[in-house]
């Protein structure tokens, strides 16, 4: 069973959308693009090339679901073409060279085409769920084009619901939210016979910039210092907080949850408090989370990895790609520390950690001779202002994730939504770890109530 609880797979006709033969011929005959892949992409492609065991169902894709009212097969095929036309990175195929490195092949928008392949009619939603999830797991990967799997379920009333899973090689979490809004936009353009959309800034150009910067980094570069300070005596990063019950080296199955720990009234009151105290919300929420984590431990110091979104140019703000990265931050937060001071210390740690945003973890390990692996990874995203957000409810849309390998890691995503604030997390599925997360959410909520004096309505948000 998948770690998410996806209950919105309707009964109906299931179709898999595959590239036309003309599109595949275009990729086969296109000359290599000179622009390089990023180190993260290179590593992902190398890992994907290792043969998987037949019983291995783990596939850590990033997925989304949305219902497109008014679409038919012709207009949906055009919608997919428009989506790829807008984002150069989605028209990119990776090909292994003889020396085991990878090159890009990119085709022009007018060469992109998709067609449906009927997989069957399913009156039972459970059967439809199993078919859709099996296709997403079996087909999604970085070594063929597209680096994604797209299926539709056509209901009896004619509505088409899209299920798509993207490999991380060309996608990150924010890309999933952008995609939902774009699908409706492209469908409307297709129905109105509008020209193909102009491309936005390309992730492929971001890769060029990243390679250029990283090629100049040496063991003496200041950008390496946050990683140097974060590594422990074993050459690794500190593991999960001890109260989780998870220890370094554990191989534990993960569970994905999306609890809303603060309702809309409390979330809005906290936003106003942040404005009054000139505290950026991402840092304020991060400080609240870190304080809650430290309160469970005997040590006031905590080291985590923080996500960096890296869309640092206007032309990349709406671009699809693997822009996100991680940097280490270490901060001292006593249990009795005022929240404003905790935010200040978190901001200071973040500013220092962010100096390492051009040094991906594999490069840091190579330069330092270490074997650092992620443990606690935190991220903040304000999804209230993602382009197309106003259409999510009408589209019954959601974002979900594929299953990951058993490990000793935990990924926590603070997500500001219109209905409140989520603490989405993918964490080891053990009772001590789940109970720890529930306590942390309670402590976060208590901190927000204490500074805002806004009582959280338990009917609005239940952790």
UniProtKB/TrEMBL annotation:
Start and end residues of each Condensation domain: 72-362
Annotated protein name in UniProt: Condensation domain-containing protein
